[in-house]
Amino acid sequence: MSSLNGYRDLIVFQKSYKLAMEIFKITISFPKEERYSLTDQIRRSSRSIPANIAESWAKRIYPKVFVNKLTDALGEENETEVWLDFSDNCQYISTEKHDSLIKEYDEVRRMLISMINTPEKFCK
Prior knowledge:
CATH topology: de novo design (two linked rop proteins)
Structural class: mainly alpha
Shape: elongated
Distance between the termini: 6 Å
Number of helices: 4
CATH architecture: Up-down Bundle
Number of strands: 0
CATH class: Mainly Alpha
Number of domains: 1
Largest sheet: none
Strand content: under 5%
Radius of gyration: 15 Å
Oligomer: single chain
C-alpha cells in the first residue's frame, strides 16, 4: 500500500495538471475559428488526464476499476498528443513548443503505464 495521502501527492497528477494549465495558456492565442474545435478538444483531453487520475485514486479499493480509470487517463494523454500534432502542423504553436510538450507527455504516459502495470503499489 502506498504511503501517499492523496492523488495530489502523485507526481503524475502534478505533471499532468501543470501541463493542462500550460495548454490552457497556449490555446488562448489560437484563432477564434478554432474555439469550438481544436481549442476545446485539446483543453478537454488535457484536463481529463488529471481528472481521471483523481477519479482512479478514489476508486483504488477496487484494483480493476483503478486500472480502468488510469487507462482512461492514458487514452486522454494519447488524444492530447494528437491535438498537439495538429496544433504544430497548423502552426499555432512552434515546433520547439510541440516537441517540449510531447516530451513531457511522454513522461506522463510512462508513469501511467507503470501504475497500470503495478496497481498493487497504489491500491488498498
